[in-house]
Amino acid sequence: MKKVITLVALATVVLFTSSGFAQSKMSVGLGLGYHVPQGDMASKSKGDRDNALGFDANLGYMVNENFQIIFGVGTVSYSGKSSGDDVDAALIPILVSGRYFFSNEKIMPYAGLNVGLTNVTISFPGDEASKMILSYGMLAGACYAINEKVNLDFGLGYNYVPSKNVKFKFDFGTAEAGYNAVNIAINFGVNYKF
82-93, pLDDT tens digit by residue? Predict the structure, then answer.
């Protein structure tokens, strides 16, 4: 996993620091999200699955005045029970997103899609297993420009990690995930243009 993150980070640095990109089109952002599990992830946990706070960092590039490409990495962890045992699920999404801005005024509504890999780690007491799984989602929201360099980002995201029937290899043997990781996230972030 560390090799994958290192390679993705290195490729991003090389891509975004090449001379073909104007610095004024770049941005960095930090975000906080409130994640609410949906579907099987919520119902199969029989009410024990907690909502969770997640964090993310991103690097963005404005392709033109209305379209932005974002590379982001985040983390969110859930706690619950399975057959009476405590179970934790940690998700680390590594995503590429495209956002289309409908306006370039002080309030900039947007909609977009994302795709990438999510490292899913499932932990039982004394044992854990991880898998990288292709994931995707949709997002919508609005940015509010505080000034020319800083904006606040308010959004809603739908994230889908098709983990049902994926085999995880534990010390005690192999187990399949019983549900897909699906959540809706309410996000707040701050972006800085440079």
Answer: 666 777 889 999
Cα gap 86→73, rounded to integer Å = 27
Predicted structure pTM score: 0.81
Name the residue type at position 123.
S
DSSP letter string over 24-85? GGEEEEEEEEEEEE-HHHHHTTTT-PPPEEEEEEEEEEESSSSEEEEEEEEEEEEEEEETTE
Cβ atoms 158, 180 nearer than 8 A: no
Strand partners, 90: 77, 121
Tell which residue, 188, 12, 15, has the closest CA to residue 95: 12
Structure tokens at 184: 């809706």
Tokens of 133: 């799984």
What end-to-end distance do the CA atoms of the chain give, in Å? 30
For residue 164, which amino acid is it?
K
Structural domains for the chain = 2-193 (2.40.160.20)
Q: pLDDT per residue over 91-110, tens digit each?
A: 999 999 999 999 989 999 99
* CB of 92 closer than 8 Å to CB of 74: yes
Residue 136: helix, strand or coil by DSSP?
Answer: strand
